[in-house]
Amino acid sequence: MVKYALKRFVLMLTTLFIITAICFTLIRLLPPAQLPVGDPHADVVRARREALGYNKPILVQFGLYLKGIFTRWDWGISDKLYLGQSVGPLFISKLPATMLVNLYSIIFSIPIGIILGVFAALKKNTWADHSISTLTMVVISVPSFVYAFLIQYFLSYKIGLFPFVMKGGTDYFSPSMFVSMLPAVMSLSFGTIAGFTRTTRAELTEVLTSEFMLLARTKGLTKRQATVRHAFKNCMVVIVPGIFGSFVGILGGSFIIEKIFSVPGVGSLYINSINGRDYPMFMMLTIFYTAIGLVSGIVVDISYGFIDPRIRMGSKK
């Protein structure tokens, strides 16, 4: 397992380096963003561009960029959105809002999804199972931004239960801030609930029809005892890695949902950096999202071996 984890880690770093190099090259081939005339921050940006070798070959620029990251944790300064300000601190200031919205949605979604999946599996081929399965497929098929518009229309506009957008400020744990987060949280939750419902139902249904479950029943266990002690435990081998991956992904956020509800997080910052041609900000966020995706994949794969000792990742036998 350790050998497999180290191998995956090296492959992750290699992949991250290749993607970073490609994105950096493509961005530096574009003309630099035009700086405003007369703005004192523009002089700072020009000086930083000179220090980063904007007039030198791409390979030299890439080396200077990596040197700044590894030696000073310097990701550059904003060209457009926050002219003259360091990209790193701006990113850190946006991260709490993204993490909280996604964390609330996961905490809310996972128990509901698992409970619905278990109920559907235990009621297999009944009207309850068919209803839950049909609703699950419908929910998965609809994009999350559609739920965002529906929530805004019915719960915010018609009923007036929630505000249209997230409250400003940094008092993230205040009651008013929590209430303003709920529309975005609910919009993100529908897809997660449906995903865990479908996975739990499929895995538990397969386990319940296994031969060892029949053996457990013949030994005197009731259906409930056999389900709790054996079926649900084996079902968790597939479900728990998905939970781990979801928690790793809380840093990622959701671009569209954050934009719709004006969540001051990294998702909306990413979209703004693209629209505003803020290349240093876009570069850092691209590396960040790539790293999150790669780390999430490794965590999911390695967690299989810890959950079920019978699984040996990377084994040749």
Describe the structure concisely for a colleague:
It contains twelve helices and no strands.
Q: How much β-strand is present in the residues?
A: under 5%
Query: How many DSSP-defined strands?
Result: 0
**Class per helix and strand makeup:** mainly alpha
Query: How far is the N terminus from the C terminus?
Result: 13 Å
3D shape: globular
Largest sheet: none
Order of helices and strands, N to C? HHHHHHHHHHHH
Task: Look at the structure and give the mean pLDDT.
Answer: 83
Number of helices: 12
Provide a descriptive summary of the structure in words.
It is a single chain. By secondary structure, this protein is an all-alpha fold. 74% of the residues lie in helices and 0% in strands. It contains 12 helices and no strands. Helix 4 (87-122) packs antiparallel against helix 5 (127-141), helix 5 (127-141) crosses helix 7 (175-208) and helix 11 (266-275) packs antiparallel against helix 12 (279-307). The radius of gyration is 24 Å and the shape is globular.
